[in-house]
Amino acid sequence: MNTLQNQVTEQGKTLSAQGDSLTQLSNSLSQTAADIDASGKMPGNLIVNGSFERGAAGFTGWSSTATVADLQVPHSGNKALKMSAGQSNLVGQEISITQGRTYRMGVWAKQDPGTTIKDAGNTKFRVADSTGLLVGSNYGPFSSGWQLVTFDWKATKTTTASFQLTTFLSAGAMYFDDFHVLDVTDEKDIAANAGAISQMNTRVTAAEGAITTQAQQLTKLSGDLAVTNAAVSKKAEQSAVTGLTTRMTSAEGKLDSQSQQLTSLQNSLTTMNTELGKKADTSAVSSLTGRVSQVENTITSQSQSITSLTSTINTIRTQGANPWVDGTFESYSDGQVLGGNGTAVVVASQKFTGGKSLKLRRDENNSGNSDKQLGTWQSVREDAKFRFEFWAMMPADQAPSSGWTTLVGIQSQNAAGKNAWQAAVTVSEASLGARDKWVKFTGIASNNGAGRTRAVVWISTRGATGNGTPGYSLYIDDLVITDVTDAKAAQDASDATASAVSGLTARVTDAEGKITAQAQQQTALATKVDNANSRVDNMAKTLSDSQSTQASLNTSLQSQIDAQAAANIKNQTTLDNTIKSVASITSTQQTHATALEALATQQTTLTSSVGDLSASVQNTAKTVADVNGTVSSLWSMKVETVNGKNVGAGITLGSNGETSDMILYADRFSLFNRNNATAVPVMIAEGNELYIDTARIKNSSLTTAKIADGSITNAKIGNEIRSNDFVDGSRGWRIAKDGSSQFNNVIVRGRVEANSGVFRGTVQADSFIGDIAVAKSYDSLTFRRNQTVQRNGAYQNRGYSMTVVLACTLVCQTYGTGSGLGYTSDITFNIGGQEVTRRIFVDAGNITGGTTAFELRFAARLDADYNNVGFFIRASGRTAAIDYTCTVENITATAFRTDSSSFS
Question: What is the pLDDT of residue 690?
């Protein structure tokens, strides 16, 4: 009985323990379910257990004032993080982040009434890594109801960072629930694009309205322009200036009158002072002094009016023809921005005349041309030309970059919005000459046509660009812009006429020089002619009389040629046969010379004939030169026979001063080797064909060739060689100079190398070299809490599109049952930059001591190349309440061909 009672007691204890375990398991399941429900409301949350439904799991930094509390009104679930007063609190969780990605850190928060922040610098979102603080953002105080606080941050480096909630309170408590960290990079980009599109739509709408308004204004301005042109044609501005000048003359006359009055009063004052010396009445002196003071005040006032009037006249004169802006800048207020986003401002601190000038500024670190537009767009002619005149000055305290320039001109535009920038003046360090010195600049800006009929004043303050580059300020005043299109055209025409007259004068002078030279030559020639006439007189007996001096010279020359010809005739030999056969040798030599040309010809002809049969050999040589630059020389040998038909052969050599020729003509062309006992023709040309008995060609180029039977030791084909029956894709063979070839029905023995190919049919091979499917295993890794280990490897691609798979088994030690015994590990796979991280949570809530294994793998596709692709598996043990050990086993890398046609 006692034994039975003891057994029942023991079984009761066992049942009680099992009941406690079941209760604990039920609680854990409830917590897990609540955590899953909360996590489902925040997709993509990088924080584990962000709802705190599993207590402290996944977080570090717990203390007596930083705990998980059960709340009657949590934000979700049943639990929340409570941070009380008394000390600095810091609770967080580590997350791997990537440089350039944007992360949103957020939490739902509230506080008890009467809660007071002791240190705002330690009550904030905090992100830090092993090197220290990366970023922080303050929050609080909160209301008694839940409110969402967030903080966006772009990661400055790739690291493992701890995302933390911190407080330092002097009274009360703060509560935090549904803590989350999200990667919102894509969301930000989409929002930015949407905002840009919305802004662009707004700008387009505004632009459409502005275009409509501008169209109306343009219509009105066209009417106003016609009226203005009519007024200008009547010299309205000149009339206004004349009127103002008249007013100034009148004022000057009054000033003279007042001056005379002052002189008179001063004389009276002198007289009165004399009388005062005689003890005159002091009241009279006082009265007189008052009158003088009044007159002086009147004169001063009128002098100021005249000065103002003169300034106004100068302003109007300067404004005169400026189509875009008031070039005196006097009508603008001090500090008024005229353009360039605030870099073209009217100021009163510097001026050449009047009281203001235009300050042009180039900002520091500027990366562009710092362009500015002044005034509104005005209609201009395509060939418009504007003269720019202004004074410029740079203060001594400016230190611009070396080589700075400021361009002043116009920016013109056509109907399509295509711009052109034409500078009239370039201001530089050299052109200014010195600092604090006003220098005048003048130049013309020419519109370059191409339909550009609207323009605006354009100023570009240029200098060194980029970070760390200095800026500068330049002041201009009295800017006058005048349309000189018609005047410039007239000036250009005048310049062209003057240039033509000057050129004509030079040509006439040159011609006069030549006439003088010719006269001298004619004088000299006349002397020679006189001598020639003497010779002609001696030869006049055989020639007709000359008709002129020149003719006498020609006649004299002809006489010489005739005399020479007569001498040659005496040398001709004619052999006559008494039988009906004739043989003759005829030789002719001729020379001909004039003031314009010289010619020499020599010809020898051998002829033999018997009846109707004849044979001839003719040798000809000829040379020509004339004053037009023509020169030529010719030599030819021709043989011919007549025996029912004409058969001839010959060779001609010629040169015309530019090219030379050697021409052979014959029915057959042969070369003989005289050293052979029997003369054998080594080469025969018949028609368009050349026959060579045996030939060796060292270097040759054949455009088209047909080779029947032959032996070629070495040959280079300029384009391609093919069989005479080649048909692309079906018959024959072809080899091209680029190495491409085509053989139909070919058998190849030996080594074959190819980059690619297609086999249609059966391929038989004893072995393959090249990756079809390969694999390699790597040593295991062991790591513990807060430790990171990594196994590296590499794959050499061989020109194929491959899929590489990394696989491993994560074996995690478990240390008994209890939520505090769980922990989290990260396994990162990276193949050639393609990366993924698997986060593994070992839930020890219902696991006894031992091990738990997880099979993990990651696949990445590689392009068809020859790169050496690196890869690695990295294991990181995250912070936990216990020190644990894990092993990464069975690390295997497998590569196999991608896009197999076996799959569909």
Answer: 72
- Specify whether 331 is located in the same domain as 302: no
By DSSP bridging, strand 788-796 and strand 868-877 are antiparallel
The pLDDT value recorded for residue 799 is 86
Task: Express each pLDDT in 577-588 by its tens digit.
Answer: 444 578 889 888
Neighbouring residues of 660: CB distance < 8 A, sequence distance ≥ 6: 653, 654
Q: Is 71 left (phi over 0), alpha (psi -120 to 50) or beta?
A: beta
The label of the residue with tokens 């701890």 reads 162
SS3 at position 303: helix
Question: Which positions of the chain have pLDDT values less than 70?
Answer: 1-41, 191-321, 490-580, 595, 669, 671-682, 687-688, 693-713, 715, 760-761, 765-771, 846-847
**143 three-state secondary structure:** coil
CB atoms within 10 A of CB 107: 24
CA Rg, the chain, in Å? 55
* Backbone φ/ψ region at 658: left (φ over 0), alpha (ψ -120 to 50), beta: alpha
Domain span at 342: 321-483
As to burial, measured by CB atoms within 10 angstroms (0-12 exposed, 13-18 middle, 19+ buried), residue 729 is exposed
What is the DSSP code (8-state) at residue 727?
A: B
CB atoms within 10 A of CB 567: 10
Distance CA 873, CA 829 (A): 5
Report how far residue 772's alpha carbon sits from residue 766's, in angstroms, rounded to the nearest whole number: 15
Question: How far apart are alpha carbons 80 and 178 in whole angstroms?
Answer: 8
Number of structural domains found in the chain: 6
The single residue listed with the structure tokens 């008394």 is 86
Q: At 79, which CATH number?
A: 2.60.120.260
**Contact yes or no for 593/618 (Cβ under 8 A):** no
> Same domain, yes or no, for 742 and 785?
no
